[in-house]
Amino acid sequence: MSTLSERILGASAGEYVDRNVDRAYAHDGTGVLALEAWKNMGENRLGKNTRYYIQFDHIAPANNSTTAALQHDLRDFAKKSSMHFSDVGCGICHQLMGEGMVLPGEIVVGADSHSVTMGAFGAFATGVGATDMASIWLTGETWFRVPESIGINLTGRLTGAAEAKDLALAYIGKLGTDGATYDALEFVGDGVHYLSMDERLVLANLSVEAGAKTGLFYADDVTIRFLKEHGHDVSCQEPESCIYKQELDFDLNNIVPLVAVPHRVDTVKPVDAVAGVPIDQVFVGTCTNGRYSDLARFARLIRGRKVAVRTIVVPASASILEKAIRTGVLADIVSAGCTIGTPGCGPCLGYHMGVLGEGEVCLSTANRNFKNRMGVGGEIYLGSVATAAASALQGEITSPEAG
Amino acid sequence: MQGRGTGICLPADIDTDIIIAGRYLRTKDYDVWATHVFEDLDPSLAPHLKGAVIVAGKNFGCGSSREQAALALREAGVVAVIAPSFARIFFRNAINIGLPLIESDLTCEEGSTIEFDLSGGWVESGGKRYTICPLSSRMQEILMAGGLVQYWRARR
Predict the structure, then answer these.
(1) What is the CATH number of the domain that holds A290?
(2) Domain end call among A229, A255, A281
């Protein structure tokens, strides 16, 4: 009887294994150093049984000529080495991989901490740094310590204004930022079947904020239907009874809108507890909450009204942007006074756009609120799309359940 | 592998944004990282890291996968980092660039001399010897080689 991690890696928790990586991806942030390390490894080769991807999302488009030159070299390498390459504007690496690239049972490694997001498809998906990625480019393989697993048992259904983001903040608040270090999370229980693919991606995405190696969902009817729409026929992964080192239970009916307050993702409070805090900026987007369903919900909540603070909306990919244009979602967002950024990571990392000034406060749908992350002296509150919409309209942190 | 250095004490949950801020990542100039390491924690810290052994609280290196965090510490002259636990990507990154990490519950005394012997499985501070959680054999091989680049170069 095995956990999903044990099943995919083919070994028991605690064992060290070398495994071929089915899909490996890097972005413009980590790819530059990975390329340097790969060149220094002294052999001009790539693993034969691995699909390689490079996506430009972190500083896209480039902010200055230094960045542009670094990106030029990486772009050149990606094309010459026949990696799947997604240039500026295509979108966030995790979103692009999640648009039908990743299949249940695969081993997926990304040179980015939020690569855990792909666990939503029942893949063993984890993040590494640049030199590990260079090594995977060289050999197609890497080593893993098979993780112990923590079971997140979900029952009931999300109700009212509560979103998957609120549930994610709830489990991080319980576990703490290192509560799952070296471990995998497995999301199980009857409540899972009511979660859409987008909602599962949110829950898997945030698992690294509790330190987890990956956050896994067993592929079920929802997964199969999603992947069928992207041209793949796959089977369900049936959970076996297995031993979790720890189990947490969440009744989704009891989840309420939450925020993570500065500067820790695990300092989680009900939105009501910080309601009225004045904000300078709202940011909707990222690999957490920049999908079409997020944009559509945001548009529905602000349609016909005007936002009270500067509000930056960044679709997670070009296909999301295109769909939002086609369905009128984008027009609603722009008419309400929001502005739109190039599909990509946007202001999340404080590199190149939407940076906060000293003392400024942002309500963000992203996944990190570390000190100074979006700009020196800035403060970040993390919340759901509905909380972002309510707060944007009021110019202060506002519960989506208020009024 | 053996080493010694001067203890610098840091709190728990030091994230990689705090080790090296995002605004300094767009370069391949290692000096930039060495100069600005820990700037948002304590701007006066960087010059004192040469020959230092950092003793931190749990979950050191959490957050982003940026390898520049481990490189910044190495380039600033940090000999090793000791903590009860490390975030896993940072753990791999540090070993991959040849920076020793030691999992141990060491009581930190600022400025004390800290000695360690990874193969011997101990670290010593203030006359007291602590056991350490050994690295996996693969991580030991990578660290002994000087990092993952050197590991592969030796196997060409």
Answers:
(1) 3.30.499.10
(2) A255
Could you list the beta-strand ranges (E) of A189-234: 214-217
With 0.95 as the threshold, say if the pTM is over it.
Answer: yes
CB proximity B140 to A under 8 Å: no
**Contacts of residue A372, Cβ cutoff 8 Å, sequence gap at least 6:** A350, A378, B17, B18, B21, B40
CA of A206: which chain B residue's CA is closest?
Answer: B63
Amino acid at site A239 = P
- Model confidence pLDDT, tens digit, residues B109-139: 999 999 999 989 999 998 899 999 999 999 9
Beta bridge partners of A381: A363
Identify the CA nearest to A280 among candidates A343, A170, A349, A354.
Answer: A354
| Residue matched to tokens 């413009």 | A28
Q: Are residues A71 and A176 both part of a single domain?
A: yes
Residues A350, B23: C-beta atoms closer than 8 Å: yes
**Structural domain for A73, as ranges:** 1-255
Task: Tell me: do A250 and A147 sit in the same domain.
Answer: yes
Residue B148 forms contact with A (CB below 8 Å): yes
Complex-level ipTM: 0.96
Contact A285, A366 (CB under 8 A): yes
pLDDT per residue as tens digits for the range A338-364: 999 999 999 999 988 999 999 999 999
* A186 in reach of chain B (CB within 8 A): no
Residues B138, A127: C-beta atoms closer than 8 Å: no
- DSSP, collapsed to helix, strand or coil, labels residue A4 as helix
